[in-house]
Amino acid sequence: MRFLKLGVIQGRGLMAKDRGGTSDPYYKLITVYDGVETEINKSRTIPKTVNPSWKDELRLSIEPKDEFLIIRLFDYDFGTSDDFLGQVSFDLMNLRREATRKSRSDVGSTSKEVFDEVTACDSP
Questions:
Q1: Domain limits, the chain
Q2: How far is CA 63 from CA 6, 93, 94, 115, 122, in A?
Q3: CATH number 2.60.40.150 given to 2-121
Q4: In the β-sheet with 2-12, what is the strand arrangement from edge to edge?
Q5: Which of 12, 22, 48, 50 is deepest in the core (most CB within 10 A)?
């Protein structure tokens, strides 16, 4: 087992998918091994904003074989399928133990960003 500390701080300038020029954003955390995706966590939904502030700090157990961690963003829609907003991917194979990667990541083709921090560690 490998462990990660992950901070998902906020999104900025996400796409507005709802009437009124906002979205109801949330994210899913997904690991990938050999092209197979596994959802490992889902955030709370922040209603009516394109600038969500999650300030989530998570400690995750992941399999040693997991190659990537994806933060995939969606707009929650009641009664219909949720809208995809974008995603950020981390290469887990090149993240050294006790190394921290802080980033501001573009999550799509328009001006939208996610601020995050990932640290590989030895214990939960």
A1: 2-121
A2: 15, 11, 15, 24, 13
A3: yes
A4: 53-62, 2-12, 113-121, 100-106
A5: 50
Plot region of 40 (φ>0 → left; ψ -120 to 50 → alpha; else → beta): alpha
- When pLDDT is cut at 50, 70 and 90, the band that residue 66 belongs to is very high
* Strand partners of residue 12: 113
pLDDT tens track for 72-96: 999 999 999 999 998 888 888 887 6
The type of residue at 54 is W
What is the identity of the amino acid at 18? D
pTM here?
Answer: 0.85
Class of residue 34 by CB neighbours under 10 A (exposed 0-12, middle 13-18, buried 19+): exposed
